[in-house]
Amino acid sequence: MLAKSILLVSSLLPLIPAQETVLGVYIFHRHGDRTSKSFTPTTLTDLGYQQVWQSGNFYRNRYVDANASSLIYGIASNVVKNSQLSVEAPVDTVLQNSAAGFLQGLYPPVGATLGSQTLANGSSVEAPMGGYQLIPVNAVQSASSGANSENSAWLQGQSGCNNAIVSSNNYFFSDEYIQKLNSTKAFYQSILPVINGTFTAATDTFKNAYSIYDLIHVSMIHNSSIPSDDLLTNDTVYQLQTLADNHEFNLAYNTSDPIRAIAGSTLAAQIVQQLNSTIVGKSKSQVGIQFGAYASFLSFFGLAQLPAVTENFTGIVDYASSMTFELLTNATVSNTSYPSNDDISVRFLFSNGSAAANPLTAYPLFGQSSTTIPWTTFVSEMNKFAIGDQATWCSKCGNSTGVCASATSTSTSASSTATAGSSSGNGGAISKAVAGVIGAMVTLAVILGIEALIMLLGGLRLVNKKRLGGVATPETVGAAAKA
């Protein structure tokens, strides 16, 4: 009888799925509640501090604690090993402090027992503040957010990417923007009594949709009284948020102009690089954490085709929101056995608001049907829009000064060398590709010459198309950086 039972259990083993192991994670996180951008400098509030701490504690219970629901393989559960973590935040007090608060929740003080050290002379030293753990946050300048980016209403100007800034500015010349600007004039003027201490009748428009919403949103959280608050009905506040969502998503992403999503492209490269380092190092560096601004979320959402899953991915994410990329395997993992790339998958999860209070939910990326996709597929899809090296960034952005000066000269030198090699290899003949370019330029010159002659004889002159629309003003051109 016992033999039959063992035989039955053995036959069922192939039907029991292998236990999933988390090899590593990458977490991209927004800061917590802060003061309004209308009154700089912005600062992290106590509520914001609490939100990011709670989020850090949530991720501790999910990935780090000895009894975690999805314990990361090889992670130190109590006393942090800084070699296992890579934590970054732009040079910005709101984001840097949010990262520090999050880490306090991820690795809380360990107490006198674990937080003490015996010296050579036999004496014992306890770490201050009950074993408070020191975890460095690397300060970075990134395309996601520049220095003190949280003082700016719109973050694209902080990216330093010329073509991305131009692309975002182009939104203000689009039919969609102009239609929205005109159709919402009456709505915005109706709430002027609420914000006339900060905005005027001229600035209280859709052009400043985010700044207006941000001021009212922060006031509703922190101010005991708001001027003319009877105007702020639920429907009005909802419309303010919806208009701000529309405004910011269009500045962060455009299907036909990918460079506008430069923040999402650079973030994608960082995600792949961190997860790949986890695999190459066999989970010696398991956790990547970066704090950034809402624009990076929106850019990445668009690039990863997440709005097709739900239109919620076109809205500004709440304070302390986070998106997580889990590196998974069902293969055996041990000190002597680590899964191959073919046995590793990636799962994307998102929480709108602190994960401690809002569900961390899995969503499919890149139009895939499954929320878990093979690592090789993930890398292939991310590389379609990821920008992860200086030379490519400079080229895509059209930057040629500052840090891009050397990258541009190197690229030009390499191009010249390649052209020279092609010529010498063909007895000095011009390659078909170069000949085609020259031919096209000659044809263009002839056409332009004819047009110039016609205009000269007809008394015509060129006029900027945007001037004809009466909407191209210096104020509008700079709107993306000041919106």
TrEMBL record:
This protein's record includes keyword Amino-acid biosynthesis: no
Annotated transmembrane regions: 433-457
Keyword Nucleotide-binding found: no
Signal sequence interval, chain numbering: 1-18
Top-level taxon of origin: Eukaryota
UniProt keyword list: Membrane, Signal, Transmembrane, Transmembrane helix
GO MF terms held by the record: phosphatase activity
InterPro entries: His_Pase_clade-2 (IPR000560), His_PPase_superfam (IPR029033), Histidine_acid_phosphatase (IPR050645)
Family named by the database record: Belongs to the histidine acid phosphatase family.
Protein name (database record): Histidine acid phosphatase
Organism for this UniProt entry: Phialocephala subalpina
Organism taxonomic ancestry: Eukaryota, Fungi, Dikarya, Ascomycota, Pezizomycotina
